[in-house]
C-alpha cells in the first residue's frame, strides 16, 4: 500500500517540505533508505545520513536546519521518534487488518462473538466464551471454556488461553503464550511422593496488557493471578500462581516470579531476574538484570545483585570486587614483611 507525503503529514500533524505527492510503500533505517521508503532522523549522530540517504521521505524535528543539499522530501514534526512510532503502529494496524472467520475451526454454540471478528483457521472456542468487538484471534489458538476477551484485543497464533481467564480491552498476546495453566502446587507426602494441589482460581489481564511470545502466566490456587492495566511483559517470562503485578510495570525477558508475590505500579524489571514467592515489591522499583530478589523491596528502590542489595552500594562494592586479587597480593606482601621482621 502506498502513502503520499501529504497523507503521512496529516496523520502526524506535520508539515511537508518538498513534494507533497511523493509516495512511499515501505519503512527503513535512514542509513539504509532506498527510493520509495520512509525513514526518520531523531538521534543527532545520524544527521550526516540525511544528505546521502536514498529514502524518499524523512521525518525530522520541526527545528531541523538544512546545511547541505538534500534529495528527499521532509516532514517536520515536534518529535520525530514518537511520530515514527505512531506510523509503525498505523502500519501494523493496516498490515494486520484481517476480518472474517476462516475454516476449519470449532466454535461452541454457547459462545458469544462480537462484531468485526477475525478468527484464524484451526482455532478452538470453548463453552460460554465471550469475545468483544474488533478482536483478532490468529490461527491455531485455543480459547477455553468461560473465557472473556475484551474489545480490540489481538491474540496471535498458537496462544493457549485456559478456562475462566478474563482478558481486557486493547491487549496483545504474542505467539505461544500460555495463560491460565495450573500453578506449581504439589504437597509432599511422608514417603517423598507429591500430591497435586488443585488450582481452581483464574487469571485476569486488565486493559492494555501486552504479553510476549512464550510467556506463561499460571492460574491462582484460589482467587486470581492479576496483571493490572498497562503492564508490559516481554518474551519467555514465567509468572506463578496468585502473583499480582501493578499498573504500568514492565518486565523483561526470562524473568521468573514465584507464587503469591505482589509487585507495585510503574516498576522496571530487567531480564533474567528471579523473584522469590510471598514477597512485596513496592511502587516505582527498578531491578537490574540478573538480580535475585529474596526480600521485600520498599517503594522507589534501585536494586542489583544476587542476592540483591542497593544499586549504588552494588556499584561501590563492584570496584572492590575487581581489585580483590591486587588487595590479596598486597596483604600477602605485608604479611611476609612482618614475618621477616
Automatic annotation (TrEMBL):
EC number: 2.3.1.191
Pathway(s) per entry: Bacterial outer membrane biogenesis; LPS lipid A biosynthesis
Active site: residue positions: 241 (proton acceptor)
Catalytic activity: a UDP-3-O-[(3R)-3-hydroxyacyl]-alpha-D-glucosamine + a (3R)-hydroxyacyl-[ACP] = a UDP-2-N,3-O-bis[(3R)-3-hydroxyacyl]-alpha-D-glucosamine + holo-[ACP] + H(+)
GO molecular function: N-acyltransferase activity; UDP-3-O-[(3R)-3-hydroxyacyl]-glucosamine N-acyltransferase activity
Keywords tagged on the record: Acyltransferase, Lipid A biosynthesis, Lipid biosynthesis, Lipid metabolism, Repeat, Transferase
SUPFAM superfamilies given in the database record: Trimeric LpxA-like enzymes
Stored CDD domains: LbH_LpxD
Keyword Lipid biosynthesis: yes
Lipid biosynthesis among keywords: yes
A GO CC term assigned to this protein in UniProt: membrane
Biological process per Gene Ontology, one example term: lipid A biosynthetic process
Domain (UDP-3-O-[3-hydroxymyristoyl] glucosamine N-acyltransferase non-repeat region) ranges: 22-89
NCBIfam families associated with the record: lipid_A_lpxD, PRK00892.1
Function field: Catalyzes the N-acylation of UDP-3-O-acylglucosamine using 3-hydroxyacyl-ACP as the acyl donor. Is involved in the biosynthesis of lipid A, a phosphorylated glycolipid that anchors the lipopolysaccharide to the outer membrane of the cell.
Family: Belongs to the transferase hexapeptide repeat family. LpxD subfamily.
Assembly, per entry: Homotrimer.
Name of the protein: UDP-3-O-acylglucosamine N-acyltransferase
Organism: Antarcticibacterium flavum
Amino acid at each position: 500500500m502506498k502513502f503520499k507525503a501529504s497523507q503521512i503529514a496529516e496523520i502526524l500533524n506535520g508539515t511537508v517540505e518538498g513534494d507533497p505527492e511523493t509516495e512511499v510503500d515501505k519503512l527503513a533505517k535512514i542509513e539504509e533508505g532506498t527510493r520509495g521508503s520512509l525513514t526518520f532522523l531523531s538521534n543527532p549522530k545520524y544527521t550526516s545520513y540525511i544528505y546521502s540517504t536514498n529514502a524518499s521521505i524523512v521525518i525530522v524535528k520541526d527545528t531541523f536546519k538544512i546545511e547541505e543539499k538534500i534529495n528527499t522530501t521532509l516532514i517536520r514534526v515536534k518529535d520525530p521518534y514518537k511520530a515514527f512510532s505512531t506510523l509503525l503502529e498505523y502500519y501494523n494496524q493496516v498490515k494486520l487488518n484481517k476480518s472474517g472467520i476462516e475454516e476449519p475451526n470449532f466454535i461452541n454454540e454457547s459462545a458469544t462473538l462480537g462484531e468485526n471478528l477475525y478468527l484464524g483457521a484451526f482455532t478452538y472456542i470453548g463453552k460460554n466464551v465471550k469475545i468483544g468487538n474488533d478482536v483478532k484471534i490468529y490461527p491455531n489458538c485455543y480459547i477455553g471454556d468461560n473465557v472473556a476477551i475484551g474489545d480490540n484485543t489481538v491474540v496471535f497464533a498458537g496462544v493457549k488461553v485456559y478456562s475462566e481467564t478474563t482478558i481486557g480491552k486493547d491487549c496483545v498476546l504474542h505467539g505461544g503464550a500460555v495463560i491460565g495453566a495450573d500453578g506449581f502446587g504439589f504437597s509432599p507426602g511422608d514417603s517423598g511422593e507429591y500430591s497435586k494441589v488443585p488450582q481452581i482460581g483464574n487469571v485476569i489481564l486488565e486493559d492494555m496488557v501486552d504479553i510476549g511470545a512464550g510467556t506463561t502466566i499460571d492460574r491462582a490456587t484460589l482467587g486470581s493471578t492479576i496483571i493490572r492495566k498497562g503492564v508490559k511483559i516481554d518474551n519467555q517470562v514465567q509468572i506463578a500462581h496468585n502473583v499480582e503485578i501493578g499498573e504500568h510495570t514492565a518486565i523483561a525477558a526470562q524473568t521468573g516470579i514465584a507464587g503469591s508475590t505482589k509487585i507495585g505500579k510503574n516498576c522496571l524489571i530487567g531480564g533474567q531476574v528471579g523473584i522469590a514467592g510471598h514477597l512485596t515489591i513496592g511502587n516505582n522499583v527498578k531491578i537490574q538484570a540478573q538480580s535475585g530478589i529474596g526480600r521485600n523491596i520498599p517503594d522507589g528502590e534501585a536494586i542489583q545483585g544476587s542476592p540483591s542489595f542497593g544499586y549504588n552500594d552494588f556499584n561501590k562494592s563492584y570496584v572492590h570486587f575487581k581489585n580483590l586479587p591486587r588487595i590479596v597480593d598486597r596483604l600477602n606482601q605485608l604479611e611476609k614483611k612482618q614475618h621477616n621482621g
